[in-house]
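Re: the 269-residue chain
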Amino acid sequence: MFSFKKKIEWQISAVTDIGTVRTVNQDNFYIMEKVLSFPSTSHYERSVECTGAVLVAVCDGMGGESRGEEAAFLANRVLESVNPRTFESLSTEELKHRLGQLICEMNDSVYRNLGSKGGFAGSTVVLFYSDVARTVVANVGDSPCIRHNQYGTQLVTVPDNQANYLFKRGEITEEERWEHKSKSQLTQCLGEDPEEFQVQPHLYVADAMKKGEIYLLSSDGLVDGVKIPQITGMLRQNPSPSLAHALVEAAKAGGSRDNITVVFVQRKA
């Protein structure tokens, strides 16, 4: 059990863009507010400031334009009914279990509303939670989360794709796993039939965020156009909420052919 007399202040900025090729934006984000639907939205930006425990997510839909968009929307909408402040009193193990449950609920929502009716619809998810005691990131699929602080920058999610499998086997390099032709072959995603396959979220646990520390969540459209070292350099040069917009524009200029969503989370105090 934890004591939470001190309140953390957060700055969250989110940007989603249809990109230069797609005709529908299949990405979606949740930043402690009502989830918005983005049918054919070319560009949308939103910033919020809040205190206390925080819950943020990015979902990247797939399975045809309208079905992919709806899958990402349905997944994130599960979070609207969740009050992250109720997680503060949980032990870290209980918290990990609860976030895993949340992702399973997101999976079930996508399958129940879309997959069970025939055809395929799915979504990735990267989920971020933090309070005064700890930070937890969970992911299913290949949407990345990057942590940046005074000690450096690191990828804290595990890409669920064939390219990462080859990388772990030593068959391709770190750089190649972001460009290899098999990176679009996911090994798990939301929208699976829960009676046949139970999604297994990857969990990253860290201490409470320090003032100025940043977590950057995105859809894989970002890393399609901006390499990780370039993202690291931009984080060092511009550790401010405006970076979300700058990264989206850099991904478009860098040749990304996908929708691009970036959520910037920084502890202010």
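The radius of gyration is 17 Å.
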